[in-house]
Amino acid sequence: MSGFKSTDRYIASRDLEVAVNAAVALQRPLLVKGEPGTGKTVLAHEIANSLGHPLIEWHVKSTTKAQQGLYEYDAVSRLRDGQLGDERVKDIGNYIVRGKLWEAFESGEQTVVLIDEVDKADIEFPNDLLLELDRMQFFVYETRQTIKAKHRPIVLITSNNEKELPDAFLRRCFFHYIRFPDRETMEQIVQAHYPDIKQDLAREALTVFFKIREVPGLKKKPATSELLDWLKLLMIEDLSPEVLRSKEQHVVIPPLHGALLKNEQDVHLFERLAFLSRRG
Amino acid sequence: MFASFVLALRSAGLPASITEYLTLMGAMKAGVADYSIDDFYYLCRATLVKDERHLDRFDRVFGEVFKGLEPPEGMPIQNLPEEWLKKLAEKLLSPEELDKIEKLGGLEALMKRLQELLEEQKGRHQGGSKWIGTAGTSPFGNNGANPEGVRIGQQEGRNRRAIKVWDKREFKDLDDTVEIGTRNIKLALRRLRKFARQGTPTELDIPETIRTTANNAGYLDLKMVPERHNTVKVLLFLDIGGSMDEHVRVCEELFSAARGEFKHLEYFYFHNCIYERVWKTNRRRNDNMTPTEEVMRKYGPDYKAIFVGDASMSPYEVSHPGGSVEHWNDEPGSVWMERLTKHFRRSAWLNPRPRNAWDHAMTIGMLRKVMENRMYPLTLGGIDEMAKELNK
Question: What is the ipTM of this complex?
């Protein structure tokens, strides 16, 4: 069967392809977890691209309520219009503001819905969406109508593991954990993004990058997106690969480390390690 | 047809249910797996595993069920921490057996030898599945609970293929590294919420709007109020070290749940009993002490103080000056405890030891008296009770 495959810009492992295709075939949500910066959000764009469906993004924040994804009733403007004697006021439907899910349900073709960082919201948020995601329909109390999906959208949910998700919610999803890519895959990813990068620079940079990830006690390990940013910087600065090559096995602080280390404690740790290795 | 697989997953502690099983069947019917065994494995994984903590366990069960291997005897399949194993061995082994182990060079050497044996096994590539240590005659056979030793992934498939995907078990070090079980604790802690409206007005205040609109001769007069936020303030005192080591896990769960749930959360560590000083980081406890008096000055009586500790120590540590095991204390711990409970309007003690064990340690009774009986077990029910008490 045809389905989602790696593209020249996005390298998906076989297990991810199977998980996406299963979610598409059974029209169930796919929950994607993984270290920050391993391409969870980009995945939605790629699915939408490769299947040729429009993408509807719903970015979840700590204040987001499940209801906002369905619809909101703008009582204030109705009150104001009532005051001004506007004709619109007679139809309550004029004051129902559609949410992202409604948009997806009403769409004339199948859509891809991304519910990004679901764990940022209140602990009850996933529970409030159970029925909507299961049946792909909901009821609008104000107008007494049921909104049903014309085409069941492909729902992709990402989580950063900040909160645990309820079992009932998990039961309805497919699950995929994006593993951190190994060196080989990483080389492919770098190739896909920067096809004209100098081979020896890429090789040295990857060595440094994986060495940094191995340093114990890092608060935030650099991930794919950090590596790509860093490589871009290295290319702009046009650094020679020799700068990256450390003569001994000692730890050195890589040039332009600001793109890789995002935490001042991590930078301190590196400075200490570099200091120790110079002395030793 | 795959029902036995799902049952095996369940007995290995993976929460797979009938819903997931039916989903898997549906996906098979839809042709997602496409007659490839690897795809079938990926599909099973995406359907039946819902948490990356379980991936390793899933790989092992998959390997067993679809290769017709016998599961290891006795213990359920899981990785045991080394410490735990050692303790278990000490408990289970008879003195003679321990002697034998001593002759082999002690437990560490034993573990090392086991490790070497495993390495050797990998190196030789003997083909077929190889089992170590189930026979029961080797010294490690006795505590036979170490699945690392008992069961190693098949290195070379019967059909001479490279290592199978699930035998790689790439998710191994993820098992049990993330915080778990905090969701239920968070829900229990929710009882401690106290809502108040603070900050910029963003919500429509309907009763007030109706009132002012009526006063305004029917002309709309909007009134806004700030959104409600949880304003409860919590001060955690955590006992650390010594006998608390056994309870580290549950304390960590409580701590991470509390951190996620309360905006105003402060915490301090103490050892056994609170004296004139507490600390915030254990690594630098000697040069980074906070006087308990300062804690009381800084955090007002409206903070809810929660002490977490097993309250099990020598009675002198509570009742006598100089009783502390770590330093010379001028005043006994009970005096400091009384000061704290008097200062904070609401306080409670959470004890990780089960309630029926409380009579065994004299100091638990003493501290319960100081706390005026507000001691609760560190369980969901206990936290619930505590929240009710603190909310009074």
Answer: 0.75
